[in-house]
Q: What sequence folds into this?
């Protein structure tokens, strides 16, 4: 995908004059999908014409979102040359009037600028600029903006959205048994990076190198676009003992812990939604069953007791 995409469409009758849009762009952060503008910051777009113009209009349609009349939801803003105006969303969707009130247009010289205060995820996508002047045909151009979007997490294998009491059962002595789980993140720009933990989200309880396999799934459903990570894990008892949350009872015949999923959203060295994602950690209960092993401390205690009996 081109991270700076401009589409220029000119509508002119044969032999007639036409306005020409010489530049349309995201002005500042937000032009690169992999480095989106941080949600809440100001998003700016500009549209520049080579000839005189009298009216400037910006329109933004929301992909895959429809209003109560099943029409594609959109924001429409317009102003006349030499003026500044707050978007009144005339011709747009009523449901987006509040969102449109964040938008201000400045029209002077050869440029029509949009400033969107407190940007939101819905501001991502195509923005179309239409410039009209006198008797000449209007010019239309499109650019794409990218605003960050926090992921919403669910455990979907087992399907805790359907039954919150689902439990993963793992038979540690059965070579065919495994811990399988899927964590699904709806939305998310930058794309979320998954992390799994045993018991709590302390760094010492993160599963790093022990996972047998992971699988990434990208798709969409009624809740929207999503990315999932499916894991398969067959830990030994000794491996479970390495996690701080389990070290005191990892030799019990039954071990119970919560398997936790978290995400990070990063672009280069910048991390988005760090505090918010720290608080979002869906979990699923795991019950580990197996034969009771004789733990080393218990063995030595029995050996000492036996020696004491012999000495007497």
A:
């Amino acid at each position: 995908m081109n991270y700076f995409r401009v589409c220029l469409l000119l509508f002119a009758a044969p032999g007639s004059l036409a306005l020409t849009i010489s530049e349309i762009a995201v002005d500042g952060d937000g032009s690169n999908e992999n480095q989106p503008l941080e949600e809440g910051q100001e998003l700016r777009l500009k549209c520049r014409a080579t000839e005189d113009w009298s009216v400037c209009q910006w329109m933004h349609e929301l992909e895959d979102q429809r209003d109560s009349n099943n029409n594609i939801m959109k924001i429409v803003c317009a102003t006349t040359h030499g003026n500044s105006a707050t978007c009144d969303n005339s011709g747009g969707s009523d449901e987006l009037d509040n969102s449109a009130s964040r938008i201000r247009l400045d029209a002077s010289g050869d440029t029509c600028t949009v400033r969107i205060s407190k940007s939101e995820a819905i501001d991502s996508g195509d923005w179309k600029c239409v410039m009209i002047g006198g008797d000449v045909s209007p010019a239309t151009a499109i650019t794409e903006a990218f605003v960050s979007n926090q992921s919403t997490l669910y455990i979907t294998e087992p399907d805790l959205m359907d039954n919150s009491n689902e439990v993963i059962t793992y038979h540690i002595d059965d070579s065919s048994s495994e811990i399988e789980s899927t964590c699904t993140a709806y939305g998310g720009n930058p794309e979320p990076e998954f992390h799994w933990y045993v018991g709590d989200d302390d760094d010492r309880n993160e599963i790093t190198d022990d996972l047998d396999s992971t699988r990434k799934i990208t798709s969409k459903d009624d809740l929207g676009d999503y990315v999932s990570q499916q894991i398969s894990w067959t830990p030994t008892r000794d491996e479970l003992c390495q996690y701080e949350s389990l070290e005191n009872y990892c030799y019990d015949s039954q071990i119970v812990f919560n398997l936790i999923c978290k995400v990070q959203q990063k672009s280069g060295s910048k991390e988005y939604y760090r505090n918010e994602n720290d608080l979002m950690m869906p979990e699923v209960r795991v019950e580990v069953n197996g034969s009771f092993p004789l733990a080393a401390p218990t063995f030595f205690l029995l050996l000492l007791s036996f020696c004491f009996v012999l000495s007497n």
The helical segments are 97-100, 237-240, 274-279, 296-311.
